[in-house]
Design a protein that fits this description.
This protein is mainly alpha-helical. 63% of the residues lie in helices and 0% in strands.
Length: 67
C-alpha cells in the first residue's frame, strides 16, 4: 500500500512519525500497524487498553453505529 505524503497530504508524514514514536516503534509502517492493532483491540474490548476515556468513546461510537 502506498500513502501519499506529498503536496496537500504532507501533514501525514508528521502524523505517521508521531504515531510511530508514540507506539515506540522505529518506522512509520510499524506505527501504522501498531495503531491499527490498537484500534482493533479497542473496538473488540475497550477496557483492555487501560484507558477508560477511550472505552467510553468507543462505546458511544458503537451505540451510534459509527463503527
Amino acid at each position: 500500500m502506498r500513502i501519499r505524503t506529498d503536496g496537500e497530504y504532507d501533514w501525514r508524514s508528521d502524523l505517521y512519525d508521531r504515531t510511530a514514536e508514540g507506539f515506540g516503534v522505529g518506522t512509520k509502517s510499524g506505527g501504522i500497524d501498531a495503531a491499527c492493532g490498537f484500534s482493533t483491540q479497542m473496538l473488540r474490548n475497550p477496557r483492555s487498553t487501560g484507558n477508560n476515556h477511550l472505552a467510553v468513546v468507543t462505546m458511544k461510537m458503537r451505540t451510534m453505529s459509527v463503527c
